[in-house]
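Hello forum,

I keep getting stuck at the same step: I have a sequence, I want structure tokens, and every attempt I make locally crashes halfway through. Rather than fight my setup again tonight, could one of you with a working pipeline run this one for me? It's a single chain of 315 residues.
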Amino acid sequence: MTREPEWSDWRVFLAVARHGSTLGAGKALRLSQSTAARRVSALEEALGVKLFERRAHGYRLTDAGAAVLDQAEALEAAALGAEARARAQARSLGGTVRITTEEVFAVTLLTPWLRELHGLHPEIRIELDCSRELRDLGAGEADVALRSTSKAQPEGLVGRVLQGDDWALYCSRDYAAQHGLPESRRDLLHHNIIGGGGGGLWRVYSAWLEEMGLLGRVTMHYDGSNGLLSGIKSGLGVGVLPCIVARADPDLLQCLRPMSQHDRKLWLLTHERVRHNPSVRLVTDFLYDKLSRHIRATDPALNPPLGEPLLRAAP
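Reply #2:
Ran it on my machine without issues. Output:
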């Protein structure tokens, strides 16, 4: 079965045409003379036409060969241009990209993906900031943010919304097997509640627990959101977690519907100042693709629809 011609076949064709022999073409391309001759014959067989006249003193283009020479050279120019552009892009990649996010997102979602990103682009150094302080992208304190917010963003931030940032009460399968799965406020009055999360999260969470009459059921308090996750997974009790994280964990069971009456959205953000930096753009696009796939796999009913338009950018 005759194979289809490849760019490497045309590369040999051009070398033979320029050097007038398979010996010269082989030297130029670092191939053996027999390999160069075999590639020319294979190309002629694939096309069903003779491209060269074999003479005692070398190879000469036939009319058919001369007719395709310009197109072959255009193919060469396109291939070399693509290679040059790719190499230029590779040279422009590198340096450090700083990502800021909540620690529970960093540990459960980003860290495994960033390991994959490092394998693909080891020239990019990632700094992952899980500080509770809100990093100012405009001031250069971070380059990319995975951030939950209901507020208007400062001028110059650009990004895409992923979905509503819903949090719900979860427990581990082991906990449910031992104590039952609480499915109502009345059920929760007889269960251990894990509190904490730190900062703004605990303010919202504790207010909700107080409104539900459950604040007195808090038997363990963690300083951060990753502690909440650890405590819930270990079977200590029931606690709040982001749905984007918990829905993907088969060891976690949702107890009640997500907390309602909020308009927080999960955004992947960067700043106009760095959005065209090749490394920042690569990291942002990579994470958006991973987050999008993760959300589609765990929550098909997206709200709002994935791909909401960009935030306004600085003029």
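Confidence is low (pLDDT under 50) at residues 302-315. If your local run keeps crashing, start a new thread with the error log.
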